[in-house]
Amino acid sequence: MIQLRNIQKSFGNQLVLKGIDLTVNKGEVVSILGPSGSGKTTLLRCINFLERPNEGQVIVDDFKVNSKQANKKEILTLRKKTAMVFQQYNLFKHKTVIENVMEGLIIVQKQPKETARKLAMEVIEKVGLTEKANAYPVQLSGGQQQRVGIARALALNPEVILLDEPTSALDPELVFEVLEVIKRIADEGITMIIVTHEVSFAKDVSDYIVFMDQGEVVEEGIPTVIFNNPKEERTKRFFKRINREEDNLESNLTNAI
Amino acid sequence: MQIDIPFIFTALTEIFKALPLTMIITLVPLMIGFLIGIGITLIRIRKVKGIYRLANFYVSFLRGTPALMHIMLIYLGLPLLIDKMAETFHWSIQSTSIPILLFVLMALSLTAGAYMSEIIRAGILAVDQGQLEAAESIGMTGFQAMRRIVFPQAIAISLPNLCNIFIGFLHTSSIAFIVSQKELTGAANIVASNNLKFLEAYIAAALIYWGLTIISEKVTALLEKRVTVYNRGGVA
Ligand SMILES: Nc1ncnc2c1ncn2[C@@H]1O[C@H](COP(=O)(O)OP(=O)(O)OP(=O)(O)O)[C@@H](O)[C@H]1O
Ligand SMILES: [Mg+2]
């Protein structure tokens, strides 16, 4: 179980997260939606202390980290329990696909090389890249690179995988293959927190939706309620705008044809 | 005055015997300088309190003055210091018993350290921050992330600059003849004055430097191909 308690974060004198509370149960997939600049990325990065929160606690299982007292060792322990998938993939460019996946297993988890290799191959197969195991990141498409990013996270068998807009850097025709992989590992019961703009995907894959605006959780709940009957004005407006954008996109396409 | 072309070849073989010393005066400072450079870079990138300014001063001063000055300052200054210390602490060493070569190597190591730190720093800053974050996010320590992820790529990126600094130091090593080192230039000097054929001797020395430079360019090209394998290979 992942718990965030009163997470606050400011950059300079701008308060970007105004005290976020969130509980994610084991095996759950939680999607975070919200307009640009609402603090979604910052929240995700506070969970593994890539950004140190000014206030609050992160609890993974029964390991508790206080933002204020956290020392290096605690932060490392926390990071070993979590993994992250980045918008820009952030693969290790000088390492092949399999080396990218093995790196954490060998260096962080101290697994023997052969065990690590076997485990890495299994995960790589899961994301459908067996043939590319010895390719370097530059030799892969964006979609393939992101699947390596997912494999690298998955191999570590973390308590939770944090995904920050995993498909928004991708060409439209590559989005599907990545969403499909995420869906598949969600079905395996991996706990995930996903920041995404793919509303229909979020609807499909999530057990729980959090809608954020201006550093606050405006509304949260199960997908059918949030999408079909949002209570808050800001949530309604957000979905209306998203729908309009999608309509525009479609009519543009139609006009173009 | 006539130029004695056959003598150029005689001089060439004679001067060439000094190659090992030139290599020592080039490579030892570069290797020590590389280690100094890494240290200085880490201090500057992490902004280590207290010594951070000192590191900046070191780089600024040594890059801001000719290598010849470094040799002179160390060669003339360090013996004074050593003798003074020996006197106060009753050591039994004397500065005159220290080979001059050691002073040259020390001075040029300091020079190389300053240049290396700039090269390594540029290389490290060229590796995108995202990879460092990815390494940290899987639980690597800062040191592990540096050693396994950032550093290898920084060196690969820096390879052309490292080649340039090698060529630069190969040429800089020639000033060691000022403090009577018999490296290539020192040897050329001797051959020249013994035979009173100055132009020929220096042409010979120039040819040797040029040849060495071409070889090191070729070697770098090969190395670059090997080290940056990951950056090539078709589809981007
Ligand atoms: N390192 C930083 N330094 C200063 N301000 C920052 C930093 N990172 C984020 N911010 C600010 O914090 C706010 C929240 O940013 P964040 O990236 O978390 O938003 P987001 O919800 O992820 O937006 P998007 O949907 O565009 O990715 C923004 O106003 C942003 O400008
Ligand atoms: Mg974001």
Radius of gyration of chain A: 19 Å
Helix-and-strand structural type of chain A: alpha/beta
SS-based class of chain B: mainly alpha
Q: Name the ligand types.
A: adenosine-5'-triphosphate, magnesium ion
What is the 3D shape of chain A? globular
Give your account of this protein's structure.
The complex is a heterodimer of chains A (257) and B (236). By secondary structure, chain A is an alpha/beta fold. Chain A has helices at residues 40-47, 72-80, 97-108, 113-126, 142-155, 172-187, 199-205, 223-228, 233-256; strands spanning 2-11, 14-24, 29-33, 55-60, 63-66, 82-85, 160-164, 192-195, 208-213, 216-221. In chain A, the strands form 2 sheets. Chain A has a 6-stranded mixed β-sheet with strand order 6-7-8-3-9-10, with helices on both faces. A 4-stranded antiparallel β-sheet of chain A has the order 2-1-4-5, with helices on one face. The longest helix of chain A has 24 residues, at 233-256. The radius of gyration of chain A is 19 Å and the shape is globular. The termini of chain A are far apart. Chain B has 236 residues and is an all-alpha fold. Chain B is 78% helix and 0% strand. Chain B has helices spanning 5-16, 19-45, 51-63, 67-89, 100-126, 129-137, 142-172, 184-195, 198-227. The longest helix of chain B has 31 residues, at 142-172. Chain B is flat, with a radius of gyration of 22 Å. Residues 11, 16, 34, 36-42 of chain A line the site of adenosine-5'-triphosphate.
